[in-house]
Amino acid sequence: MSFCLDTYLQQSDNYEIHASKAGFKDCAMIIRFKADDLVYIKPGDEVLGVRVIGIPPIPIGFDHKKGTVFLPYTKPCHGTSVVELPIDEEEVEKIRKLDTGK
Amino acid sequence: MKALVLLGCPETPSQTPMAVYVFSKLTKMGYDVVIAANPAAAKLVKISDPEELYNLCIVDLERTLGEIKQGDYDLLVGFVHKDAAASFFVTFEQILQCRSLALVFSRDADEVEEFVNLIDESGSNALIAAVRAFHNPSPIKVKFDRAIKEFE
Predict the structure, then answer these.
(1) Are A74 and B118 in contact (CB < 8 Å)?
(2) pLDDT tens digits for B133-143?
(3) Where residue B69 sits, what CATH number does that domain have?
(4) How many CB atoms lie within 10 A of CB B128?
(5) ipTM over 0.85
(6) Which residue range forms the structural domain that includes residue B142?
(7) Rounded distance, CA A55 to CA A53, Å?
(8) Which residue, B123, B122, B91, B120, is CA-closest to B104?
(9) Which of B80, B87, B100 to mutate to test the interface with A (most CBs of A within 10 A)?
(10) Which residues on chain A are in Cβ contact (under 8 Å) with B41?
């Protein structure tokens, strides 16, 4: 079964929230600040089993030492959060293929 | 012709009557209309039509986001009164690649400007109808009526 971010966030505590109930631009800035490697994707591109919501270009960050990914996570009533969670190399490569380069 | 109407967070009072109004107007224009909303916003709309006079078609916002693809709809209308609603609107528009109308409103004029800029800067091709409004739906209705003529 493939990974699903929504299910993971409900069933695991192995993740960190760096910002919550924030605006998208603030969250994008936090991702750019915290990550040591970035790719930019389009709204609606699928990452970890969910379509990412946001204003393009959407940054997805990596911390390669920790083996984690930073991504924006938006809910209608709760705004956007920055979630950091573990990721394996196979998923990192899938995300790299979505890179728009800006 | 199919139209998708996106509702935002249900906190703003004017969204629910405007959702029914937009549904009715677009239906009269010949569209098959689907409203996508989170559970709370959906309940507000559904309970507003107890006799089911409008035959409202309401679907779950996040499930719909996971299922839609380019070409599924001919028109997207989005209620944008929060930062998150702007993000949802831009994302749906990017996936659907159809004609689109953003109804931007807030009680705060600075927020109206901020949400308009967010949509503009995203490279969206949407027509944006923006107005300061919160409790009273009339200013949004006036803006919508004027803007929707572009899609007739």
Answers:
(1) no
(2) 999 999 999 99
(3) 3.40.50.10160
(4) 19
(5) yes
(6) 2-151
(7) 7
(8) B120
(9) B87
(10) 76
